[in-house]
């Protein structure tokens, strides 16, 4: 499944509240950074613990958006990426390897506490792709 993924400068919860009201949507998930298990390679500052790590909002029958807060400034126009959810590790690795060619890896495709594989890469055309294998 492909869903737009929106990045916010500490305003994800506020934005998703507005979007939920505007579309009479259904909030499917909202996890904060404080909900994440501690990880030595990804420490969370006390001031960031109430930020949204991941949110998903159902806007229409088959339309969803997802989003999260960033602890660094996200410039407008660079705050949307394509989230691709796959069931096949092989399909994800194939696409990942092609898109990272002449691109910029933001987070290596790797196992996480919430998925078999997850990663983010900006391709050679400037489009950011977020992969999740369930």
Automatic annotation (TrEMBL):
Listed SUPFAM superfamilies: Glyoxalase/Bleomycin resistance protein/Dihydroxybiphenyl dioxygenase (SSF54593)
CDD domains in the record: PhnB_like
Source organism (scientific name): Heyndrickxia acidicola
Pfam families for the chain: 3-dmu-9_3-mt
Boundaries of every PhnB-like domain copy: 2-130
Protein name: VOC family protein
